[in-house]
Amino acid sequence: MSAVRFLLNGTPCSEDGAPPSMTVLDWLRTRAHLTGTKEGCAEGDCGACTIVLGRRIDGSLQLRAVNSCLMMLPQIDNCAVLTIEGLAGPDGALHPVQQALVDADATQCGFCTPGFVMAMFAFHHGGEPADTAIVHEALAGNLCRCTGYRPIAAACRRVAHGPADRFVAELPALADALSALPVAADYRYDEQTFLAPRSLAALFAAMAQAPNDLARGR
């Protein structure tokens, strides 16, 4: 693959000048200059780096909250990447998830808030009920050290079944845009190679071509 291609907050992006070992978090902050996504622990434990990935599955776009500090750049190839900067409307109006946090007084210092917003955004589009256990599961992995979790959970319950946001109408177009992006199985930069076989046959072929590199985790 000559480049990693993806959608960033709806805009097509291509990257071919970054090492495959660069995390998505570092790329967002240093290359895209989207610093709303925070680095806390850099180990996938605090949730400050949470973003939402959209993948085209059976013709529709399915959204999932992920820790960007644990993902390498090539892993977002052919994905729709949503960050905190992309949620507000074109006129600056807050997304319903953001407004719910404001209304519930669910933020203080704000460092953890972008991660919570993105986790709640994925929950908002997941269609699950606002049961306490499900809400807690949706927020699991996001740590807050000053607000306390009760108002955050209350805000999450408010958006469990709406109100509908602009993304409901935009998701089909995003899915179509993703389908137009080429999909490849590897990414190379300098001496680093990232292989992403998409079938067992492709995996075995890669192992046969470069058994020593795979054994060393290159």
What is the number of helices?
Answer: 8
Number of strands: 7
Residue share in helices? 25-40%
Structural class, from secondary structure content?
alpha+beta
Order of helices and strands: EEHEEEHHHHHEEHH
CATH superfamily: Beta-grasp domain
CATH architecture: Roll
Summarize the main sheet.
Answer: 5 strands, mixed
Compute the separation of the termini in Å: 16 Å
Query: Which spans have pLDDT < 50 for at least 5 consecutive residues?
Result: none
The strand line-up of the biggest sheet is 2-1-5-3-4
C-alpha Rg (nearest Å)? 18 Å
Strand content: 15-25%
Number of domains: 1
What is the CATH class name? Alpha Beta
> Can you tell me the CATH topology?
Ubiquitin-like (UB roll)
Shape: globular
Average pLDDT rating? 91
Compact overview of the structure:
This protein has helices spanning 24-31, 96-103, 113-124, 132-139, 149-158, 167-179, 200-209, 211-215; strands at residues 4-8, 11-15, 50-57, 60-67, 80-82, 186-189, 192-195.
Structural overview:
The chain has 218 residues and is of the alpha+beta class. It has one domain (4-184): Roll (Ubiquitin-like (UB roll)). Helix content is 34%, strand content 17%. The protein has 8 helices and 7 strands. The protein has helices spanning 24-31, 96-103, 113-124, 132-139, 149-158, 167-179, 200-209, 211-215, and strands at residues 4-8, 11-15, 50-57, 60-67, 80-82, 186-189, 192-195. The strands form 2 sheets. The chain has a 5-stranded mixed sheet. Strands 6-7 form a two-stranded antiparallel sheet. β3 and β4 form a beta hairpin. α2 (96-103) crosses α5 (149-158). The longest helix has 13 residues, at 167-179. The chain starts with a strand and ends with a helix.
